[in-house]
Amino acid sequence: MKTMSPYPIILTTILALLFINFSIFKKEQLLKNGTPVYLKLAPVDPYSIMQGYYMILNYKMPENLESLSRVYSKQSGYLVLTINPDHKANILRIYNKEKPLAKGEKLIRYQRDGWNTFLGAGAYFFQEGHGKIYESAKFSKLILGDNGETILLGLLDKNLKKLGK
Q1: pLDDT, mean of each 10-residue run, the chain (165 residues)
Q2: Residue 106 belongs to what domain range?
Q3: Which of 92, 102, 83 is CA-nearest to residue 143?
């Protein structure tokens, strides 16, 4: 009986570990070098039996952008925003490669799911019984990278005070 060589398994394991570590490194660099951004929420607080307690993060979009994005066919892309000195973001428009960014404008990646537009994380999970803590959420705190990618750091109240731990 012929035995299988261990080399393909070892090589696959090494490649998987390299990929995981590179992903972690990229997220750490985003946390270290990214820009803090506060985005206005229009939260919903559902419950999922399979996933536990969570809040879907619906972001407040300008009316002109919301109506435009409903007919916009792309399922993902970038939005253009500006960031105030207090780190609150103002979403201006859908990014068009033919119109270069003005000074102070940044890109944030979006994805669409039917009528909803998600910026970064689409939901915020919390421990059972802690839903009341997050009912007053008005903003999400994100770290925004130069490439438009984000990391969700938490939810904030109307005074930009972090909710939960």
Answers
A1: 82 94 91 89 61 76 62 74 92 88 91 76 79 84 91 91 86
A2: 36-156
A3: 83
